[in-house]
UniProtKB/TrEMBL annotation:
InterPro entries: HTH_LacI, LacI/GalR-like_sensor, Lambda_DNA-bd_dom_sf, Peripla_BP_I, Trehalos_R_gpbac. This is LacI family transcriptional regulator. GO terms for biological process: negative regulation of DNA-templated transcription; trehalose metabolic process. PROSITE patterns: HTH_LACI_1, HTH_LACI_2. Residues 4-58 form the HTH lacI-type domain. It comes from Frederiksenia canicola. One of its GO terms (molecular function) is DNA-binding transcription factor activity.
Amino acid sequence: MKKLTINDIAQLSGVGKSTVSRVLNNDPNVSSVTREKVEKIIREQGFQPSKSARAMRGVKNRAVGIIVTRLTSSAENQALSGILPLLYAEQCEPIIVESQFKPSLVKDHLKFFQKRGVDGVILFAFSELDEAMLNGWQQKMVVIARRYPSISSVCYDDHKAVTMLMERLYQQGHRHIHYLGVKDADQTTGFTRHQAYLQFCQQYNLPIRSIQGELGYDWAYRNVQAVISEPISAIVCATDTQAIGVVKYLQEQQRSDIQVCGVGNNPLLHFLFPNVISVDLGFSAVGDFVVDQLFVLLKGEPIQHTVVACQLS
């Protein structure tokens, strides 16, 4: 009879592999209902974790370096909230540092990780970061938000996210949809999302009106007037952070006639402005993919590229 693996138990239980791992490691963050369901399958199947798997989980002081772009990023903090519990469940010590969108800092952090002897690295990428800088880390690194051919990655569906917003607005009867985004130099948040807006407008013969700049809500607040001076019924923002600045400005101008949309599923945005339409890029789901791919790499298996599904929230 074929010996069952954690993957088999996960499929029989209807949960993810990482959830089974957390149950086996007695992670207190697993709900009692989920724990009972998984343990029931384990008992019924007579499952016993392999010695090698237990050894991998039981290694003391296993360290994983994590490079975020900004400690203040809502998107990255949402992703971290999914990543950290999984690393703790695998008895890993996370070492979190900040790149501030500076390749030089990434280079310094990687040197530090090398000296520290980390077992793996999770990197939140950005447009200015060249793939060549990451040479030598292919078998122990997973990159988030950017796809490099030679490095395992977990990416968001930026094009689909904006397309979903445009489709929703179009279905609601909006025909004057303007766009406030990030500079095209940013390949994902900037270029890809902007292209999705332009392509939808061209496909449906809609007037194009867009302005691009910085990520922050303060920039959006200062510049949104540039796209509401013409006929407009809705505005799509490249990020939920920008949407916060846009809604604040519109409220001050008593412009309740404009539907605002954003990308990111920012909890603060939904709390302050529940009428804003937003797309959840899948930040909360990233942890499962990233940690799973990292441990696959550490076992010497091939790199993987994953695109996380997005949905209207």
